[in-house]
Design brief:
By secondary structure, the chain is mainly alpha-helical. Among the domains are: 76 residues, Glutamyl-trna Synthetase, Domain 2 (Glutamyl-tRNA Synthetase, domain 2), CATH 1.10.1160.10; 47 residues; 103 residues, Arc Repressor Mutant, subunit A (Orthogonal Bundle). Bound molecules: glutamic acid (GLU). The site of glutamic acid has 8 residues, from strand 9.
Length: 472
């Protein structure tokens, strides 16, 4: 059975890159009927925070990435790590290094000055046992380094293909620091092995770590997993996506009322090309179609506009009832004490025009209260002078007589009024919309008038007639 894991460090909330890695792992597991685990890599005690663990788990739940088994915390596995360090020392595949930080820094500086790549000189690799014992007895501090064997290390990445690294390019890297704490590459292998991980799917920034980890697998005689490194997510400037690009954590998308399935759909397309024209996928479609061999190597550019479009498409495809449920969950006060049929009309009129539930909330404001002010820019353009008052007044008089408050009747009345005044309909539609909603965009004028009802429309237009034009 395939087993994968997502292994975030709780040093910040879950951001888009992490969510995409989690998604591809989750899709891979679901597609192959495998298992998906969540491992919290909290060995950095200074920077790891419980609040981030909570936030990450909450975001994972919101995205619907349920994980199998209990959460795994690296901080709870210190005994195992310590035992493994002792074991690898005993096997002669690692050694204690007593070199001081000062001397190593000096060697690094010299290498920099001479413009060569710094490598640890392996000073302590073959210390006589007597010397090692003596230094230990003296209480000298030490790190533990891996004895990188001769030869080369190669593997076939499921995305990047065959990769070979000469072991001479790999330093005898530290697996345990002087305070005894083990390092990332070491614990990653121990955990992946203990958890029976069959496929390691992670960001391509980990490509340099993989040969080191493979050496550790070999030295312990562990079964090696397959590796798949995911392409970077780039900002519009083609630099690695970061907060600088306004790329927020996943929670912000939730708070702004993006549907989790819409975010999944968008993230799924970041680096994965399902080889079809189709762009809107349900969660189930993604699970069915996902194929790691269709993930590309090239960095994927994060495109906020496209995300908005995908999000709007998902919203549009929901039933009005589903949208109402999402709205009341996210904004419990939305709609105040309005009747259910009224809310349904509003949703039907707006859902194809908005990209998120927050936008729906903001755009629907005029359905619940009279405009407090009129958009100044729109007013300047559409309700310039007193002659507009005359036109709007004429329209008010004509609709006051309408009993059957239908879109057809409202439209007919507007056209007749415009004809009578020798105007194009647009000259009247825009100021009427402004008077009714305070803004210059939204659903069709006659639709919103029908939904608002006769009393509200006439009342609002009369107020607008008193207040506009503003700057005369
Ligand atoms: N904790 C690592 C990170 O956040 C994950 C490493 C891995 O997936 O192997 O980048």
């Amino acid at each position: 059975m395939t087993k994968v894991r997502f292994a975030p460090s709780p040093t910040g909330e879950l951001h888009l890159g992490g969510a995409r890695t989690a998604l591809f792992n989750w899709l891979f597991a679901k597609h192959t009927n495998g298992e998906f685990f969540l491992r919290i890599e909290d060995t950095d005690k200074e920077r790891s925070k419980q609040k981030y663990v909570d936030q990450i788990c909450e975001s994972m739940r919101w995205l619907g990435f349920t994980w199998d088994g209990p959460l795994v915390f690296q901080s709870e596995r210190e005994k195992e790590y310590h035992g493994a360090v002792q074991q690898i020392l005993k096997d002669g595949n690692a050694y204690r290094c007593f070199c001081s930080k000062g001397s190593l820094d000096e060697a690094r500086k010299t290498a920099d000055r001479e413009k060569r790549i710094y490598r640890y000189a392996r000073t302590c690799r073959n210390l006589p046992t007597s010397e090692e014992t003596e230094r230990l007895n003296k209480g000298e501090s030490f790190t533990v380094r891996l004895k990188v064997p001769d030869g080369e290390t190669s593997y076939t990445d499921l995305i990047y293909g065959h990769i070979t690294v000469q072991n001479t390019e790999i330093d005898d890297f530290i697996i345990a620091r002087s305070d005894g704490s083990p390092t990332f590459n070491f614990v990653c292998v121990l955990d992946d092995n203990a958890m029976g991980i069959t496929h390691v799917i992670r960001g391509e920034d980990h490509i340099p770590n993989t040969p080191k980890q493979l050496i550790i697998y070999t030295l312990f005689g562990f079964q090696k997993p397959e590796f798949a490194h995911l392409p970077m997510i780039l900002g519009p400037d083609k630099k690695r996506l970061s907060k600088r690009h306004g790329a927020p954590g996943v929670q912000k998308f939730r708070d702004e009322g993006y549907l989790p399935d819409a975010l999944l759909n968008y993230l799924g397309l970041l680096g994965w090309n399902p080889d079809t024209e189709q762009e809107i996928f349900t969660r189930e479609d993604l699970v069915e179609l996902f194929d790691i061999s269709q993930v590309q190597k090239k960095g994927a550019v994060f495109d906020e506009k496209k995300l908005h479009w995908v999000s709007g498409q998902h919203l549009f495809r929901l039933s009005n009832e589903q949208v109402r449920d999402h709205m009341t969950e996210l904004f419990p006060d939305w709609g105040g004490d309005s009747e259910e049929p009224y809310l349904m009309e509003i949703i039907a009129s707006l859902k194809e025009r908005v990209k998120s539930l927050a936008e729906l909330k903001s755009l629907s404001r005029f359905y619940f209260s009279d405009p407090e002010e009129f958009d100044a820019k729109v007013a300047k353009k559409r309700w310039k002078n007193d002659s507009i008052n005359k036109w709007v007044n004429e329209y008010v008089s004509s609709i006051e007589g309408i009993h059957d408050w239908s879109e057809d009747k409202l439209e007919l009345a507007l056209r007749q009024t415009a004809d009578k005044l020798d105007l194009s309909s647009g000259k009247l539609i825009h100021p009427v919309r402004l008077g009714l909603t305070g803004i210059g965009f939204g659903p069709s004028l006659f639709e919103l008038m029908r939904i608002l009802g006769k009393k509200v429309c006439i009342h609002r237009l009369k107020i607008a007639l008193e207040k506009l034009p503003q700057n005369i």
